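Still learning folds. Look over my entry:

…
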Amino acid sequence: MEQLPEVLRMNPEGVTKVCTEIFRAAGYPEQNAEFIAKSLVFADIRGVSSHGVARIKSYMERAKKEHWNADPQITCRQRGAVCLMDGDDGFGSIVGTFAMKKAVELAKEHGIGFVSVSRSAHYGMASYYPMLAAEEGMIGFSCTNGVSNLAHFGSMEGMLGTNPFSMAVPMQGQAPMVLDVACSVTARGNISNCKREGKEIPLGWAIDAEGNPTTDPARALVGAVLPFAGHKGSGIAIMVDVLCGILNSGVTSKHVREDQTVGPNVGHTMIAIDISFFEEPEEFDRRMKQFAAELKAAKPAPGVSKIYLPGEIEAERAEYNRQNGIKMGRGAFTELCEACLEYGVAEDPHRYIMEG
């Protein structure tokens, strides 16, 4: 029996190729398969394994059960800078990429682009989409609702999704400033990863089905995750549901469907802001860098060796991981190999192991 280390280092380009081939073999057009693969590996490159390739098994299972469209016929109703988009039950990575590109297109014409999406699915790491806008020299924002597995403040029942939101601000010649925050103490994917790898979760992450705090990931997964900062995280999650589930005639997290034979009806909001409409991009960039320098020059708190800006830690991880390989747990690697076997993919993930 193959003996693998607990954590492997994998070539990110190779893993992207493997994931693309898996989705192609499952019936996804090549471009759509690439959208999904790139969004998964993007998360691993930035060191957020909860939204990375470790999700491929659950994605494939949901695609089978929920009829996520491999090639959705996305439609738009537009007025000025605003677009209401129907994702046609498409995979979230496909619909989300299309939506942010539409927001950028609208921003180029109107100064801002606002796209509200219904009938989509889980779209992965929230910062993937605003960073697409940042690549175009724009400020980007995204948020999404999801399956109700977060207990709002004062309750013991999952009524809200973790409902993440993200904003990216470009800075010329360096990584953008990026905020990516779920409304829970931790992403539910981290709990799934702990279960897969046979580890306990920290106390305070989640409650079980009876409302009791738990360190058992299996009990947590049938219970609910907890909001960060109590009523604050809970309140933000509620407002994300307004944007992503009510404004667009979609559904709130409580009514997002899971494990059914119809689309989950997840909602997203994408915003792109053309900086040049408000200020000369060079002056904006100068002021952003000055702002960043001032923040980093502040006197550090006791025990702190370096002050980080939003997204800076992830940017440092990304630079390292592109050169040295993305981390992948043994369980996630095994599931990737199993997916290759199931769909008859010739690409062998073992080829892309860089080190253990």
